[in-house]
Design goal:
With about 200 residues, this protein is of the alpha+beta class. The protein contains 5 helices and 7 strands; from the N terminus they run αβββββααααββ. Helix content is about 55%, strand content about 20%.
């Protein structure tokens, strides 16, 4: 905690207050005796008893590990799905976001081309088979098979981009939950001081 206090201006911390099921974000301003002090984003100074802290620099009990698993499940369930890559680009992962976005866009274009090709070539292929037109059968058959490949390639690419996006979000939520402090003492609201 002394290391964190020394780097208070650089490091933002998250503290999960178990009694109120709330997250407090801010900077550690001091570590005196049995207490650490966190200045929140709302200009509050909150004192936390070190003996009631868990996570990161402190050990983690079985109860907190169970709570972390529940939080990961809840936060993953509540994270909204979007177009793969946009979330990553908005959160500073530009290269990864662009790759996801590009793969998904290419996949969607392939899907559309495949669907249109199948829709156009299917009736022509049926007409050619019924009319015994060899040249038309070859042309329609090649178009149909090519469209089918484009459709399947698009499905694989879109599915791959979507799965990458989902796995990336789950990993991010898990890291966020595991990189928090957990305060197990009485509610932090009794230890709040407003800065003027």
């Amino acid at each position: 905690m002394q290391f964190i206090a020394a780097n208070a201006q650089d490091t933002k911390v998250e503290i999960y207050d178990v009694s109120s099921n709330s997250i407090i974000t801010g900077f550690v301003t001091d570590s005196i005796g049995d207490s650490i002090y966190v200045q929140t984003d709302k200009s509050e100074l909150i004192a936390f008893a070190k003996v009631d802290m868990q996570g990161l620099n402190y050990g983690v009990s079985k109860e907190i590990k169970k709570l972390q698993r529940e939080l990961i499940l809840n936060e993953t369930r509540h994270s909204h799905l979007g177009y793969p890559g946009k979330y990553q680009m908005q959160n500073g992962k530009i290269k990864k976001g662009r790759i996801m976005y590009l793969l998904t866009t290419i996949g969607i274009v392939c899907l559309e081309v495949g669907v249109i090709g199948i829709a156009i070539s299917s009736p022509i292929l049926i007409y050619a088979v019924v009319g015994y037109s060899g040249a038309l059968i070859n042309l329609a058959g090649v178009t149909f098979i090519g469209s089918l490949y484009a459709f399947m390639g698009g499905m694989i690419t879109v599915s791959g981009g979507g799965m990458w996006y989902i796995i990336d979000r789950i990993v991010e939520v898990e890291l966020k939950v595991r990189n928090r402090y957990y305060y197990t003492g009485e509610s932090s609201s009794s230890n709040r001081f407003y800065l003027t």
